Amino acid sequence: SFGSEAGAIAARASWVAGDATIDLDGLDPADLISVAYVLDEIAPASLPKLVDRLWRLTADTLLIVEPGTPAGWQRILAARRQLIEAGAHVSAPCPHEAPCPLAPPDWCHFSRRVARSRLHRLAKDADVPWEDEKFIYLAASRLPAPARASRVIAPPKGGSGKVVLKLCQPNGHAGERLSSRRDGDVFKAARRADWGDTLG
Q1: Residue 50: pLDDT above 90?
Q2: Vertex 183: Cα angle to 182 and 187 (nearest 5)
Q3: What is the pLDDT of residue 41?
Q4: Distance between alpha carbon 38 and the CA centroid of its chain, in Å?
Q5: In angstroms, rounded to a whole number, what is the distance separating the alpha carbons of residues 167 and 153?
Q6: In three state form, how does the secondary structure of the chain look?
Q7: Which residues contact 166 (CB under 8 A, 6 or more apart)?
Q8: Average pLDDT over residues 58-71
Q9: 65 pairs with which residues across the strands?
Q10: Could you tell me the CA-to-CA distances from 144 to 89, 138, 163 in Å, in that order?
Q11: Does the N-terminal or the C-terminal CB of the chain have fewer CB atoms within 10 Å?
């Protein structure tokens, strides 16, 4: 149960309102720094300085989330390169720290179904109580990541007795992998895998 001694998680969070490009000075480092849908709002010339400031404030993990568009992916790639050069270790979604193996017009992103509130539906003049939010993210850590599994980077394609997964692999390559029923447990795992999952 929440709050019991066994399994309870103590967390202290603070919210600081301000301009991310000028109001970060004087803040103490935190174990987790998260920045969601912010880089798109910053002038491109200011992004390296902001990423540097965020990394200096990160005691453990920096999480950056951007819209799942080609432009959002490019911002994540630039931050990824900068952070790796600064000594960061990529924790997710990439299973490696090599250059991204994808090339335009392809791009890395994920999708999750999120509920729309009544106000959200009214604002978007929408009838459906959900939408599929496309996003791209980067988790960078001061600690090396443990051995990582391949990541499913596109919706799986299935057929009669087969499944094709597009995987980003720990060796720095990306490509499709076909599994069929005769692959046994590998096929069963591939059939259960979803976009964004890891697969050993």
Answers
A1: yes
A2: 110
A3: 93
A4: 14
A5: 6
A6: CCCCCCCCCCCCCCCCCCCCCCCCCCCCCEEEEEEECCHHHCCHHHHHHHHHHHHHHEEEEEEEEEECCHHHHHHHHHHHHHHHHCCCEEEECCCCCCCCCCCCCCCCCEEEEEECCHHHHHHCCCCCCEEEEEEEEEEEECCCCCCCCEEECCCCEEECCEEEEEEECCCCCEEEEEEEHHHCHHHHHHHHCCCCCEEC
A7: 152, 153, 154, 174, 175, 176
A8: 97
A9: 36, 137
A10: 5, 15, 32
A11: N
Among residues 22, 139, 18, the alpha carbon closest in space to that of 79 is found at 139
Predicted model pTM: 0.86
Fold held by 24-146: Translation Initiation Factor IF3 (3.30.110)
Of 111, 132, 131, 113, which is closest to residue 121 (Cα–Cα)? 131
Contact 154, 177 (CB under 8 A): no
Domain ranges within the chain, ordered by starting residue = 24-146, 149-200
Rg (CA), the chain: 19
The residue-averaged pLDDT of 20-38 equals 85
Chain-wide mean pLDDT for the chain? 89
Q: Look at the block and give the residue holding tokens 């994920």.
A: 110
Most distant CA atoms of the chain, gap in Å? 60
